[in-house]
Design the sequence.
């Protein structure tokens, strides 16, 4: 089955700097790659997603890139702000022939210092 | 829509007791997923349903765990008997269906087994 590895497990940056989180996946059939943000004590919430027919997607300060050949994808946050502090999860979906279930990475705890 | 509704928000029980977690999906969502979140293991998929039918329960830890979805508006996850290692946050999540893989999480149930 699908396996998703996420790095780093913790990341500390200064306000205004960029943050990059990387994930690799194992199942070449996976075709949907979302990123979730989870604030302390809250539920995970979708912040951006990308499909396998797209190499890059951007939404204001957040961007995601996908390299299907290498089976890795990354989250980029520019001009970080203290409110970006949270745990970020990447995920991969093996596709509809497997029900579209999401397999999550282990999470990255991002801390943005003012 | 009120989103995915889970109850209870917190549950404290003693080892050996039966625990029942409840989930009301977003109306019209065909898929329902149960995840467990711990520091050590991250977000683990336990089981998921499509149109009330269990599709994949390979993530269910052992026979002490069972899940049902008697109708499109309700699902339960039961642990009997509970053990301290079952302590975790249990999330229910749903998504619309074919062509839309965005997953919406409930607020979770924080389970503590003493």
Sequence:
């Amino acid at each position: 089955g699908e396996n998703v590895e996420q790095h780093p497990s913790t990341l500390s940056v200064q306000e205004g700097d960029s943050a990059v989180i990387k994930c690799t996946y194992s199942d070449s059939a996976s075709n949907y790659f979302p990123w979730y943000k989870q604030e302390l004590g809250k539920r995970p919430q979708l912040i951006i997603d990308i499909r396998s027919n797209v190499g890059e997607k951007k939404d204001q300060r957040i961007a995601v890139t996908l390299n299907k050949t290498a089976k890795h994808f990354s989250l980029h946050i520019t001009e970080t702000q203290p409110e970006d502090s949270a745990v970020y999860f990447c995920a991969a979906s093996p596709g509809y022939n497997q029900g579209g279930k999401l397999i999550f990475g282990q999470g990255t705890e991002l801390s943005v210092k003012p | 829509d009120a989103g995915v509704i889970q109850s209870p928000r917190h549950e404290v029980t003693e080892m050996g007791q039966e625990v029942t977690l409840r989930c009301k999906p977003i109306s019209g969502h065909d898929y329902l997923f149960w995840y467990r979140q711990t520091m050590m293991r991250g977000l683990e998929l336990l089981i998921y349903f499509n149109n009330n039918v269990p599709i994949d329960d390979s993530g269910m830890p052992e026979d002490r765990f069972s899940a049902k979805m008697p109708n499109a508006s309700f699902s339960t996850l039961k642990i009997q008997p509970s053990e301290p290692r079952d302590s975790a946050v249990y999330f229910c999540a749903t998504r619309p269906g074919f062509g839309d893989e965005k997953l919406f999480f409930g607020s979770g149930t924080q389970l503590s087994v003493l």
Observations:
- Chain A is about 0% helix and 55% strand.
- The mean pLDDT of chain A is 93.
